[in-house]
């Protein structure tokens, strides 16, 4: 059995690495090494950031690299316990009460306030309430105007500001918080490439975020992390540009054994529709404190890549962990070993592209199985053709050429895509092909004997569908260089 060799350069991997920025990665030298190791998207978690932090990270990242895009991850609604200073001990089998912040306390039973004013109104009997990611489990037995009487199913210490999760109950939150709205304004001002919407429950939530983004052009990523988001998944993905599978909260809202199954199903649905998909949370959790991951974590990363994810994400591992550089490098190493073993998987479904575009991308993907192609060049104005093509998880490299620098940065997250910003793209088709191949050749990514496929727009006036496919040999295009080899 042959043992593969890991790619030495980050450009050698197709799966994109998203890394969260925090105190552990504020240093320029740390970030440079993370970028060199393969970080292609910098995530800023709005739960721990204000305007000054957004501005600082934006300035720092853009001063270090033009090959890294920015993702603002909104805070969303979080219910927390409040109303006390020291921890409160609750014992399995006892009864306690919950109320809203400032609500009345029971005369006999321990009462805990939560930061959700409609906790009593929205609740139902026999509902389960999880505190601190399920370390404390309550079951609602009775409800009055201001109190929930609960049985303690699993006891322990309740600490101030720990999270409260209520699975399978629709809470009457608005789609976004006031902070979310302010943070989206910041993302628009600073020209972030992506915004991820936390705790998206249905298409109405997604539409609210889309309205807030307006005509900014920022790509909207829906975080799927609750029961309602799963139930409404297929309608949600029709409204957004991509999905983040946020396995942390998802594994609290649902029995944890469902998460791998749901991950695979969601990745496939995203690929069918040509949507971005990111797998997130605890991918290298042990590397917060250790310089090496567990074998299970390595397998988790590899399985997400086999499933066909566009990107894999690091959270606390890079924001507050001890080994952010090594964590990114580990992801790169796993991807470089796994990706060559991933076979193309053709999706015979429709995307947002025109039918003709989907058809030609399917044909191109099929062709890569039998043609020895070094890569595929796509000339695009919108990026839709790229999403239609790379969802098939083809083996050849994909270069996406665009005159729009913002779009080029947004395409970074797509699996296997190297965006190329060319401000002066020729209107003449032959000149455009020559210009593009010469540019890629100058980067050292093509040799004269290589063959590439090219997908580009029709030259018929008034026709915009990308429905022309051509296969060329580099030396025939760069005739002035053909004698050098």
Fold and architecture overview:
The chain has 485 residues and is α/β, with parallel strands linked by helices. The protein folds into three domains: 10-76 and 174-340, Phosphoenolpyruvate-binding domains (TIM Barrel); 79-165, M1 Pyruvate Kinase, Domain 3, CATH 2.40.33.10; 355-484, Pyruvate Kinase, Chain: A, domain 1, CATH 3.40.1380. Helix content is 33%, strand content 23%. Strands 1-2-3-13-14-15-16-17 form an eight-stranded parallel beta barrel, surrounded by nine helices. Strands 4-7-6-10-9-8-12 form a seven-stranded mixed barrel. It has a five-stranded mixed β-sheet with strand order 20-19-18-21-22, sandwiched between helices. Helix 15 links the parallel strand 19 (397-402) and strand 20 (417-421). Helix 5 runs parallel beside helix 7. It starts with 15 loop residues before the first strand and ends in an 8-residue tail after the last helix.
Topology at a glance:
Elements: E1 16-20, H1 28-36, E2 39-45, H2 51-64, E3 69-73, E4 79-82, E5 88-90, E6 95-100, E7 111-114, H3 119-122, E8 128-131, E9 136-143, E10 148-154, E11 156-158, E12 163-165, H4 178-189, E13 194-197, H5 203-213, E14 219-224, H6 227-231, H7 233-239, E15 242-246, H8 247-253, H9 259-273, E16 276-280, H10 295-307, E17 311-314, H11 316-319, H12 324-338, H13 355-367, E18 375-379, H14 384-390, E19 397-402, H15 405-410, E20 417-421, H16 429-442, E21 451-456, E22 468-473, H17 474-477
Parallel strand pairs: 1-2, 1-17, 2-3, 3-13, 6-7, 13-14, 14-15, 15-16, 16-17, 18-19, 18-21, 19-20
Antiparallel strand pairs: 4-7, 4-12, 5-11, 6-10, 8-9, 8-12, 9-10, 21-22
Helix pairs in contact: 1-12, 5-7, 7-9, 10-12, 13-14
């Amino acid at each position: 059995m042959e043992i593969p060799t890991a790619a030495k350069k980050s450009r050698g991997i197709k799966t994109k690495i998203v890394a969260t920025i925090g105190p552990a990665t504020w240093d320029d030298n740390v970030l440079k090494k993370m970028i060199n190791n393969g970080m292609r998207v910098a995530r800023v978690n709005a739960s721990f950031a204000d305007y000054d932090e957004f501005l600082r990270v934006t300035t720092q990242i853009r001063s270090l690299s033009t090959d890294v895009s920015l993702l603002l991850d909104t805070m969303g609604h979080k219910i927390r316990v409040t109303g006390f200073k020291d921890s409160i001990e609750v014992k399995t089998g006892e009864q306690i009460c919950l109320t809203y912040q400032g609500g009345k306390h029971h005369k006999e039973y321990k009462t805990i306030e939560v930061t959700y004013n409609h906790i009593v109104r929205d609740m139902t009997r026999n509902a389960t309430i999880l505190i601190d990611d399920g370390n404390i489990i309550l079951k609602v037995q009775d409800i009055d105007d201001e109190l929930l009487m609960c049985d303690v199913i699993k006891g322990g210490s309740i600490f101030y500001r720990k999270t409260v999760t209520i699975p399978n109950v629709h809470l009457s939150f608005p789609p976004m918080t006031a902070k979310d709205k302010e943070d989206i304004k910041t993302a628009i001002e600073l020209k972030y490439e992506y915004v991820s919407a936390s705790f998206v429950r249905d298409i109405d939530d997604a539409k609210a975020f889309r309205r807030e983004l307006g005509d900014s052009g920022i790509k909207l990523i829906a975080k799927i992390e609750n029961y309602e988001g799963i139930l409404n998944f297929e309608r949600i993905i029709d409204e957004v540009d991509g999905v983040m599978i946020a396995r942390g909260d998802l594994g609290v809202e649902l029995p944890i054994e469902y998460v791998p199954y749901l991950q695979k199903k969601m990745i496939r649905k995203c690929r069918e529709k040509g949507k971005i998909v990111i797998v997130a949370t605890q991918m290298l959790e042990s590397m917060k404190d250790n310089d090496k991951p567990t074998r299970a974590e390595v397998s988790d990363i590899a399985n997400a890549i086999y499933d066909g994810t566009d990107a894999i994400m690091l959270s606390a591992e890079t924001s507050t962990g001890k080994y952010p550089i090594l964590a990114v490098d580990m992801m790169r190493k796993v991807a470089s070993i796994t990706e060559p073993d991933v076979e193309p998987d053709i999706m015979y479904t429709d995307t947002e592209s025109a039918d003709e575009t989907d058809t030609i991308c399917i044909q191109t993907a099929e062709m890569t199985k039998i043609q020895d192609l070094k890569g595929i060049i796509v000339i695009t104005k919108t990026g839709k053709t790229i999403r239609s093509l790379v969802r098939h998880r083809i083996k050849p490299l994909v270069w996406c050429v665009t005159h729009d620098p913002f779009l080029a940065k947004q395409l970074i997250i797509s699996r296997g895509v190297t965006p190329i910003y060319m401000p002066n793209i020729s209107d003449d088709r032959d000149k455009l092909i020559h210009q593009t191949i010469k540019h890629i050749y100058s980067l050292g990514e093509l040799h004269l004997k290589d063959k590439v496929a090219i997908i580009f727009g029709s030259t018929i006036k008034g026709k915009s569908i990308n429905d022309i496919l051509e296969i060329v040999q580099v030396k025939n295009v760069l005739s002035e260089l053909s004698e050098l080899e």
